[in-house]
Request: fold
Amino acid sequence: MVNNAVIATSTPTPEPARPRHPLGMGAVELAAALGAPAPAEDVRLTGVTLDSRSVRPGDLWSALPGANAHGAQFAEQARSLGAVLALTDSAGERACLDAGLPVLVVEDPRGATATAAALVLGRPAERLRTIGVTGTNGKTSVTTVLTRVLDELAVPAGVVGTSGTAYRDAAGAAHGIGTVRTTPESPELHGILARMVEDGVQVASMEISSHALVLHRADEVVVDVACFTNLSQDHLDFHGTMEAYYEAKRELFTPAHSVRGIVCVDDEWGRRLAREASVPVTTYSTLPGIEADHRARDIRAEEYGSTFTVDGPAGPRSLHAALPGRHYVANTLAAELLLAAVGRTGPEVARVLGAAGTVPGRMELVASSPVRGVVDFSHTADALEQALVTLRAVPGTRRLLVVMGAGGDRDRSKRSAMGEVVARLADVVIITDDNPRTEDPAEIRRAVRSGIPETTNAQVHEVDGRGAAIELAASLADVSDTILVAGKGAETGQQIGGIVHPFDDRLRLRDALTGRGPAGADDTDGER
Reply:
């Protein structure tokens, strides 16, 4: 999915995640670098891939052990598509040899794949300025805003993250690369960076997920500056505990992954990271009473945004956040500090930052009157609380109606907490389906509803089908009410079973409010 939010022109046709003219490397030289026995033949390697289906002639193909099977079972396919060498462990060696592929055998083929990709592609991360952002919430907002500001300042820049991968080259042309994960697998990531280098990109901003740090996707990328936004409960289906989740994030703030760090200390995890990081760290905060190098204060809500003052080592300065809420003040301040870290400072940067702060699917205003309609990616209890508190504080708000659910095949332990938060902070709660994936949607809804106490003052509905839930919210809303559709943000599909169905919360909410209007509206002139 291409992130067309960053590129102002029409959506580019997705391009491959690899350079057009790779530098390449000899197999014997790579074997020496990996500490593996040299292959009998010194073939020339021009690419690296983990997926046997995406092999191109001249590729090194990595055959990794999996939870249910070994990737080496696809060795014949990789060989037929042009792979000239396999990288695997001892368990995959025989299948690769039987398929006619020479083999490099290592103990940790996943980690070695990142090293191989960096070497074969000429260490592209070292040939441009790089920014890495991690945290439970805010990664997409910060990286997207960064890229928009740089674009406005005519700096060739790119972004890699949840909303896709896009960049503008030195000639001003827009490019998009199709990616699936927040942080792509290491061959893709190094291939993307190599393509950016080839096209004259100067700054690359990347979302770096905790999964990526654990699974070696970001190995061999040492970003010039890393940023930590926050940490709250999520992904415990993968990490198991909050401590393990934090430790994965902390890994970004080591010399293996970054030169320096910028850390939000609004939560205890950030304060702990500021103490434990093994690279130099600059801190920032938006809460009173917390010591930080840069402190936001005098936050003043506007119609749909905020202005605020920042106290820093050089004295006070004023900034504007284009979206409402303290968390977008934090995101704006993070973006400003990251821009400064790559050499972009001054009044013009502040002006552009204040105008470029909107991000698709992040507190996105899709209708403003007579009912305000907002779509947000919030899919954790903490993010929902921030979104609802923020919208409650927007001038002129009457009631809050929220449409929400929880994703299937993901952290089940957060579902009841999400239900508790929305029932406590919203006036009307409509529990529906997010991306149920392979789970029973009704069971997910029941888990969310289990967190809502019987004594709640909120009006609670459970609706089978996200479209019907949005329609119900529109029918219940009245003048000056706000509808928040939470969970999926700018996603354009809904995963049910093994099928992704077209679905865009923004279009559905806009259509529901435009087509039906608030409760009691006159179809002729839209007035009550």
User: Anything to note?
Assistant: The CA atoms of residues 137 and 230 lie 7 Å apart.
